Predict the structure.
Amino acid sequence: MTDTLISIISVFIGILGATVLGAAKKKYSFGFTGNTLAGVFGSIFFIKLFERLGFDPVSIMRTGTVNYILLTINMLVSFIGGAIGLIAIKYLEKKMNK
């Protein structure tokens, strides 16, 4: 597994997080396209924000093999980042429509 593949999987997990939240809580949903964009940007933002803690793709592959604990943390942060990205965009929409 390469660093790039881990990054792409992280982005897809972020999309999944936003889509799951949008399906579970209809008031946060922006449709398929909106949820996808929120998931992408939320996932990337959270991974970049917390990568110094050591679960970025480079750290996961540092030894030449996959560190599955770090990979699991990375995927969890991506999922939560996608969901929080959707909530943040909904908050911004509310503030702008006042």
